[in-house]
């Protein structure tokens, strides 16, 4: 079972829509027309997890 997370635009806080363009997946905002690749989202989440681990290790 896959749990899908609702992603919000960083610019206008609107829910993003999933779009396939060729073989690439992007999340698009209808309000401000920004696009974010899945690769960027995964990289940001990994960076957040690493920073949380560093904070936990230092305390």
> Strand count, sense and closure of the main sheet?
3 strands, antiparallel
The amount of beta strand, in percent, is 15-25%
Radius of gyration: 14 Å
Return the average pLDDT rounded to an integer.
86
Structural class, judged by helices and strands?
A: alpha+beta
Order of helices and strands: EEEH
- Given the structure, what is the number of helices? 1
**Fraction of helical residues:** 25-40%
N-to-C span:
35 Å
Counted beta strands: 3
Oligomer: single chain
Biggest sheet, spatial arrangement of strands = 1-2-3
Which word captures the global form? elongated
Poorly predicted segments = none
Task: Describe the protein's architecture and organization.
This protein has 59 residues and is α+β, with helices and mostly antiparallel strands. Helices cover 36% and strands 22% of the residues. The protein contains one helix and three strands. It has one helix at 38-58; strands at 17-21, 24-28, 35-37. Strands 1-2-3 form a three-stranded antiparallel beta sheet. The longest helix is centred in the last third of the chain and has 21 residues, at 38-58.
């Amino acid at each position: 079972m896959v749990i899908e997370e609702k992603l919000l635009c960083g610019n206008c806080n609107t829910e993003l829509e999933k779009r396939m363009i060729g073989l690439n997946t992007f999340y698009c905002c209808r309000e401000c027309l920004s696009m974010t690749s899945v690769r960027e989202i995964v990289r940001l989440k990994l960076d957040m997890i690493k920073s949380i681990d560093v904070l936990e290790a230092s305390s």
